[in-house]
Design a protein that fits this description.
binds calcium ion, binds D-MYO-inositol-1-phosphate, Fructose-1,6-Bisphosphatase, Chain A, domain 1, five-stranded mixed sheet
């Protein structure tokens, strides 16, 4: 295993311990609102702290971009860690056992290492640039389909950006009519990891943040899939509008998304 992936795994497992401990005592968790339907708990902050400490112990000069801490600039900006300490906070708060820790490392602007860890199931998804993707050390691959029939797509509702409800629902309806079924499980990181593992055939969501998607993007690519924005371009990190699946299916998914792109969604 690449030494930096090894540290990412250690950091994710440390955060996982923090998350599981608090999930067992949910009544003690403090919740604060940071935006419309957007919450941060004492667990998000403590898990992020555990990740930062683990990374800083080995790589004190690297830059860290954390959902809760913002940008912690290191003296070596070639290495950027992008972390979501708890992806699926709404599930966590409600006691729904489906959430994950997501950690990615970019080297000179390119995704290089990725870990998504589901602490409830003990599932560790990992990827290293050019070396494939794994689930608990077993190789995983994106499922290939030529069209949408018999597929299951994962998605997320735009619950933090309700101004996009109409456009989103139009895309959803158009896709739903052609697919076998849809899943809205509540963790974009796990949605992407499940695409990589072939558990779902594709994923799309509006308005995600870099820490939601960085590790998942490398997992999907290393599992043989493709990640784009809603126009088929590579602006998804900026726009937050993301589609992931096998190359062939992605073209089909975009056919149902494109007609519903308004001004805000085509950027
Ligand atoms: C959220 C989850 C959710 C997605 C939201 C994300 P958070 O992340 O990934 O599935 O629909 O858009 O913001 O806030 O739980 O880290
Ligand atoms: Ca997230
Ligand atoms: Ca989060």
């Amino acid at each position: 295993m690449h030494p930096m992936l090894n540290i990412a795994v250690r950091a994710a497992r440390n955060a996982g311990k923090v998350i599981i401990r608090s999930f067992e005592q949910l009544d003690k968790v403090e919740i604060e609102s940071k935006g419309s339907n957007d919450f941060v708990t004492s667990t998000d902050t403590a898990a992020e702290q555990a990740i930062i400490e683990t990374i800083r112990n080995s790589y004190p000069d690297h830059t860290i971009i954390g959902e809760e801490s913002g940008v912690l600039t290191g003296s070596n900006d070639d290495y950027q860690w992008i972390i979501d300490p708890l992806d699926g906070t709404t599930n966590f708060i409600k006691g729904i056992p489906h959430f994950a820790v997501s950690i990615a490392l970019k080297v000179k602007g390119k995704l290089d290492q990725a870990v998504i860890f589901d602490p409830i199931r003990g599932e560790l998804f990992t990827a290293s640039r050019g070396k494939g993707a794994q689930l608990n050390n077993m190789r995983i691959r994106v499922k290939a389909h030529k069209d949408l029939s018999a597929t299951i797509l994962a998605t997320g509702f735009p619950f933090k950006h309700k101004q996009h409800t109409k456009a989103y629902m139009a895309m959803f309806t158009s896709l739903f009519e052609k697919t076998s079924d849809m899943r809205r499980a509540g963790s974009a990181a796990l949605d992407l990891a499940y695409v990589a593992a072939g558990r779902v055939d594709g994923f799309f969501e509006i308005g995600l943040k870099p820490w939601d998607t960085a590790a998942g993007e490398l997992l999907v690519i290393e599992a043989g899939g493709l990640v784009t924005d809603f126009t088929g371009g590579h602006n998804h990190t900026q726009s937050g509008n993301i589609v992931a699946s096998s190359t062939r299916l992605l073209k089909e998914i975009l056919k149902d998304i494109r007609p519903h792109l308004g001004e805000a969604l085509s950027k």
